[in-house]
Amino acid sequence: QVQLVESGGGLVQAGGSLRLSCAASGRTFSSYNMGWFRQAPGKEREFVAAISWWNGIPTYYADSVKGRFTISRDNANAKNTVYLQMNSLKPEDTAVYYCAAANLLGWTAALDKTYNYWGQGTQVTVSS
Q1: Between the CA atoms of 7, 10, 16 and 19, what dihedral angle is there, to the nearest 10 degrees?
Q2: Per-residue confidence at 36, pLDDT binned at 50, 70, 90?
Q3: What are phi and psi of 112, to 5 degrees?
Q4: DSSP labels for the chain?
Q5: Per-residue pLDDT tens for 40-88?
Q6: Strand 10-13 vs strand 122-127: parallel, antiparallel, or unpaired?
């Protein structure tokens, strides 16, 4: 079992930056692939970014965030945290952002049904 807790959301102006954190507890964090998804009001949940389980290579990004967002993870020193650095934010990035953990087998980075554990979400609001 893995517990995930997101933090770092908030209100920011367009062009600004935020860094989301996802703290994991429970089973060995480094054994899971990690991803970020988001869901805007009235829309389906969509893939944002993902990072592989061990050394963080490779990473994957949705086309809409490529070049603006960076996913990273810290497996060392029991930090067990995955980050999403979001730069050049746009109003269309407004959504609830969810952190998710996936077992190694059967994982597809952009497919939410291949993730096994989810956090409660953190709201990101970008004003124009």
Answers
A1: 0
A2: very high
A3: -65, -25
A4: -EEEEEE--EEEETT--EEEEEEEEES-GGGSEEEEEEE-TTS--EEEEEE-SSS--SEEE-TTTTTTEEEEEE-GGG--EEEEEE-S--GGG-EEEEEEEE-STT--TT-GGG--EE---EEEEEE-
A5: 999 999 999 999 987 778 999 999 999 999 999 987 766 789 999 999 9
A6: parallel
